Amino acid sequence: MNYSYKMHLMYDGTHYSGWQIQPHALSIQQLVQNAVRTLTREEANVIGSGRTDAGVHALEQVAHFRVVEKVHLEAFQRSINGILPKDIRLAKIEEVAPDFHAQRSALAKEYHYHLSFGPFVSPFERSYVWHVAWKLDLDLLRQAAAFFVGTHDFSSFTNSAHHGACAKNPVRTVTKVDVVEKPNSLILEFKANGFLYKMVRNLVGTIVEVASGKRTLDELHHIMAAKDRRLAGHSAPAQGLFLVKVYYKDGV
Amino acid sequence: MNYSYKMHLMYDGTHYSGWQIQPHALSIQQLVQNAVRTLTREEANVIGSGRTDAGVHALEQVAHFRVVEKVHLEAFQRSINGILPKDIRLAKIEEVAPDFHAQRSALAKEYHYHLSFGPFVSPFERSYVWHVAWKLDLDLLRQAAAFFVGTHDFSSFTNSAHHGACAKNPVRTVTKVDVVEKPNSLILEFKANGFLYKMVRNLVGTIVEVASGKRTLDELHHIMAAKDRRLAGHSAPAQGLFLVKVYYKDGV
User: Fold this and answer.
1) Closest chain B residue by Cα to residue A82
2) How far is the alpha carbon of A218 from chain B, nearest alpha carbon, in Å?
3) pLDDT class for B161, splitting at 50, 70, 90?
4) pLDDT at residue number B205
5) Distances, alpha carbon B249 to alpha carbons A136, A248, B108, in Å
6) What CA–CA distance (Å, rounded) separates B233 from B231?
7) Measured on CA atoms in the order A125, A130, A135, A140, is the torsion positive or negative?
8) pTM, rounded to two decimals
9) CATH 3.30.70.660 placement within chain A
10) Pairwise CA distance, residues B110 & A97, whole Å
11) pLDDT per residue over B197-237, tens digit each?
12) Nearest CA of chain A to the CA of B90: how many Å?
């Protein structure tokens, strides 16, 4: 292969079974790969930075493909956005070094989780937030969020089902869990060198349980140490979760 | 009837045939009225401030209904939002004087129209903007917008089909057409004492034709004076349009 391309993709995950290609399900990776093959007339594989689950959104998912023939970037972007459904967009495409790999070259990722308070959710937010209609203690929420910053074994916060390969090393370094307050809503911003399967949603579910008074801050130490998924909180719903950025060396 | 209630409704109009009840079509008014009748167990009619077309959204549509039995406001809001689909929400309900009428008491209305520029539309905006992919002259756009402020006969900017009653007096007073620029997008904000059928979309279509160089500013005088719908620009697509506020005396 002569040319490697890096794509920035945006998608509304509501109507898909997730990023990853799987039989008998409509995946974003499949639709993007089909479109890339149609345009390049080559059997290119589209490799993403990692999976996102059914219903999870992306402001910036990164994927690469390699082809023999050079691609005209501007025409390619226009054409693929003509082929793809409107809930998936190619925001940017650039040529990269042949050793660039969307998953293996990734240094860090950032996910945001959107909570909505108040008596009702706006129709325009209905697929993009978790509606928490009960009262949260925001001081406890902030303390629970801060607890997860650092290098930890996150075994208690991953669902291992059919993801053996990823779970080999359950240690991750979380570099931020910021709490951004807005009127009647709140965003939890996570950045780490990598995330285990369902890790963000399990962290959010547990943080919200602490902020709801269902668990204490002290329990978090115990849950983390136990390395047992059954001890942590429920998964927060997929629809509040956005992949917002994948970090690479030198910004590439 | 003993009690009158004013409702503030929000909706995503994408999946509806519009506000107004009509046979063989799914309208927002019908769904709200069904829900009100279910909760009050009375044959109340829900009357809106005016129609919105298929695909048009509302940040604030106002409607009223009258009943014999008093309504518990908080419980009513919670219950009706449990019955209504998630793309229609009751944002607020309050008791009003018995002579309040959502349409006849309205003093003014405000509509916003969202334009999106750039090579592609975000998946999260896809149902809420008109994608104008070509170059607009924003100075011309601002001048065309300003032209419509004032009291005019807007016959050239209304589609009269099956709206005989509304078209009796085609004179309206437009008190603002503001142009709010954002990165890669723009909002046209209209306020008037009333709008004729499809008037906002016809004004937006014409303003964009001027900003595209397809029509001159001078032509606008001629089009307005001619009182002939065929002379004005195309209707802008419904999906960019939001009813954002209905004004009443004393803010009621």
Assistant:
1) B120
2) 35
3) low
4) 97
5) 38, 57, 10
6) 7
7) negative
8) 0.92
9) 108-247
10) 52
11) 999 999 999 999 999 999 999 999 999 999 988 888 899 99
12) 8
The residue in chain A having the minimum alpha-carbon distance to the alpha carbon of residue B60 is A122
Q: Report the distance separating Cα A73 and Cα B118, nearest Å.
A: 16
Q: What are the start and end residues of each CATH 3.30.70.580 domain in chain B?
A: 3-105
Q: Which of B12, B78, B87 lies closest to A119 in CB terms? A: B78
Report how many Cβ contacts below 8 Å link chain A to chain B: 54
Backbone angles phi, psi at A35, to 5 degrees: -70, -40
Pairing between β-strand A3-11 and β-strand A88-96 as defined by DSSP bridges = antiparallel
Which segments of chain A have a pLDDT < 50?
A: 162-165
Residues of B in contact with A126 (CB under 8 A): 12, 86-87
How does DSSP classify residue A193? S
Distance CA B194, CA B100 (A): 17
Which residue on chain B is closest to A119 by alpha carbon? B78
Using one digit for the tens of pLDDT, what is the confidence trace for B124-160?
Answer: 999 999 999 999 999 999 999 999 999 999 999 998 7
* A124·B86 Cβ contact <8 A: no
Q: What does the pLDDT read at residue A219?
A: 94
CATH 3.10.310.30 fits B108-247, yes or no: no
- Enumerate the H helices of A41-147 as residue ranges: 73-83, 138-147
- CATH classification for the domain delimited by A3-105, as one of 1.20.1630.10, 3.30.70.580, 3.40.50.11540, 3.40.50.300: 3.30.70.580
